Amino acid sequence: MSLWGDEELAQSPVVANRTMNRARGLTGVNSYARELGLDPAGWLAERAGPQAWLDLCSGEGLALLAAAARLPQAVLTGVDLVGPVVPRPVPADVELVTASLADWAPGRRYDLITCVHGLHYLGDKLALLARAADWLTADGLLLAQFDPTALRGPAGTSLARPALAALRAAGFAYQPRRHLLTLRGRRNVSLPFTYLGADPGAGPNYTGQPAVASVYRPTRRQVD
Ligand SMILES: C[S@@+](CC[C@H](N)C(=O)[O-])C[C@H]1O[C@@H](n2cnc3c(N)ncnc32)[C@H](O)[C@@H]1O
């Protein structure tokens, strides 16, 4: 197994795959509401405004654009390596950032952070989850689709069980049926794994699309 760094991973056929579904809307058949089991705009609307939603790996940003019409004062931020391919008008309260989440960080906290079919293409998935936990407001909500079988040890063995155990110990909950990690409230998260690199040759995951495996060395449990 050869391990790739973030820059070469971004150029790999798996990450630069033009056939991936980047156009999910907010609600409906091909949507965030369907993937997450929750309508993000409906959830945000029940909170005192102005609400803030950060969408990681936002693709075309269609869910955020639809939310802008329902949440007139909200701060709506999307981050994607590629950014929108189809030009569309973007309202002033929507920011679509083109950047790699390997090193991007926001300048504020968010009530809602989502990642819909995005972690599959990240190298250091655990680092992004830990960083995103710190980007939440005190009672914010993080929802991220996550395939634990994509975490491997240096010899290729699955780290799914220890990784899920560490995430649960850090406060995350996992719904296997939806492949969904959730976290309520901002946390300082430190996970006992050292990232070694990515394997874009891991093959298809549960979605049927080729995905990136992430290789870690388990480290001694750190005391917070
Ligand atoms: C399957 S698409 C999902 C897009 C969107 N969430 C949706 O459901 O319509 C995965 C997205 O992850 C983005 N992506 C992959 N690696 C990334 C990285 N390192 N940083 C930011 N975005 C990344 C891709 O450009 C792609 O738009």
The gist of it:
The protein has helices at residues 6-11, 32-36, 40-45, 62-70, 125-134, 160-169; strands spanning 52-56, 75-80, 94-98, 110-115, 136-145, 151-152, 173-175, 180-184, 193-199, 213-218.
Provide the CATH architecture.
3-Layer(aba) Sandwich
Total E-strand runs: 10
Topology-level CATH name: Rossmann fold
Low-pLDDT parts are none
How much is the radius of gyration in Å? 17 Å
H/E element order: HHHEHEEEHEEHEEEE
Provide the list of bound ligands, each named once.
S-adenosylmethionine
Give me the side-by-side strand order of the main sheet: 3-2-1-4-5-8-7
As for the number of domains, it is 1
Question: What portion of the residues fall into strands of 2 or more residues?
Answer: 15-25%
> Largest sheet, described in full?
7 strands, mixed
Shape from CA axes?
globular
Separate helix tally: 6
Oligomer state equals single chain
Descriptive account of the structure:
The chain has six helices and ten strands, in the order αααβαβββαββαββββ. The chain has 224 residues and is α/β, with parallel strands linked by helices. The chain has a seven-stranded mixed β-sheet with strand order 3-2-1-4-5-8-7, with helices on both faces. The longest helix is centred in the middle third of the chain and has 10 residues. It is globular, with a radius of gyration of 17 Å. The mean pLDDT is 95. It binds S-adenosylmethionine.
